[in-house]
Structure formats: C-alpha cells, structure tokens
Amino acid sequence: MNSITQYLAFSKIISLFGILFLLHVNISNAQVQPSLGGSSRLMTNALAEMERGSYQKANEYFRQIIDTNLPIPPEMPYYFAEILYQLKQYDNSANFLNKYLELNGFKGDNYERAKALEGMLEKPLNDIKACELCDRRGYRFQACFTCDGAKELEQDCSYCKAKGIVGCSKCVGSGLITKRNVFNIVEYFECEKCAGQGRLTCPTCEGSKLETSACRTCQGVGRLQSDQICNHQAEEPRHLSAVFNRMKNH
C-alpha cells in the first residue's frame, strides 16, 4: 500500500470518528435540554382559552403541564398567575407571580404586566388576611359536618364505659371495709364512701353515661376548610333567609 492510499484510509478513519463525536454531542445536548414541544402545545392551548375568556379551561391546560412534569416555558408562571387571578385564587396567583419575577426579573417578556398584576393583588390579599371567615389562601371555612360547628360532641363516657356507675375505690366494690380490733379480730363495717353499695355515680358523666369531648373531625375547632372562594361576607342565618325570600315573593 503506497503512502497516498494509507493517507486516504487514515483520513476516512478520522472522518468517521468526527461524525461519531458530533452524533454523541448532539445526543447529549438533546438529553440535557429537554424539548418544550409538549408544554409549548399545552401553553398555546391555554393562551387560546384565555383569549376566549375561558379561564377554567386554561387553568386545566396549565395544570397538565405541572402534573405531567413537562418543561415549563419561561413565561408560563406569569400567564398562570393571571388566570388564577381571574379565578379569584389570589394566594396561588401571588405564588406563581413571585416565581415568575424570581426566575425572569425585569428581563421577562411580561415584566411590566407582572408588576401591574402585583399591584392588583394587594387589595384581595389584604382582604384575605383581615377575614376571619376564610383560611390564608382565601377559601371559606365551612361548619364541621360531624359536630355542626359545636366543637364538642356527646359520646359514651370513657371512664365508666357508658354504665353511669363505677366501683367504689375504698371498699373495692364489696360495700364493706375491714378493721382489726384490739383483740386482733377482723370486724366488718359498712363502707362509708359508698354507703355499702359498692359502687358510686361516675364522677365524669355524673351518671348520664355520656361525656362531652372535642370533636375529632375538626379537632375542636368547629369548622373545616372547603374549596369555596370566600367573599368575606357573613352568611345570613337560614331562617332569616327564608323569611326574606317570602317577603320578596309577596
């Protein structure tokens, strides 16, 4: 094999290694930088629903991006914050807005709109903080379905096992006590504590067989969280609402 043939063969080998190296680099980059195809498609659908004013549907598309762990487009947190604001989920809106500003800062495409939304959120967030009818996220409390807001429940007395009576601790339920006289003879006397009955009225339930204790469902608070957005206005008592409705009908 002459030198030219050897050179050409060597060149082919070098070229082959170069091609393999480029393929390896491209594959590595593809693994490091995941495609935004799926999330971009969902985001496009969400923005289209926003244009139509269908915020709940747009919310569902954005939730799909989050739930499926797809790559999140840089501007998505802002748009999601705007949707949540329209749905009156102000606490969630503020969380995504803060994340957008944290990730993009003033370089974000929607920076000015984000700052405007930040100002719009101030009042509803302050209303939530001042309201005693909802939790810190703005969801209204509802009366506990177990105790109906009473915070406590009557249940079988745990001390007497719902019997209303307990054994006398002095005579151990016998009704008698023993004493030894001066002649070391055992004498029996009626128990003074239980009047010889051997039992006493339960000191916990006072014979009712029931005791009142904190509701286990609401932990004695009387209310539970709900998925209802709070309007920060107390509801009218049911009987008054019925009266007002009858007055309107007449």
Automatic annotation (TrEMBL):
<dbReference type="InterPro" id="IPR011990">
    <property type="entry name" value="TPR-like_helical_dom_sf"/>
</dbReference>
<protein>
    <submittedName>
        <fullName>Uncharacterized protein</fullName>
    </submittedName>
</protein>
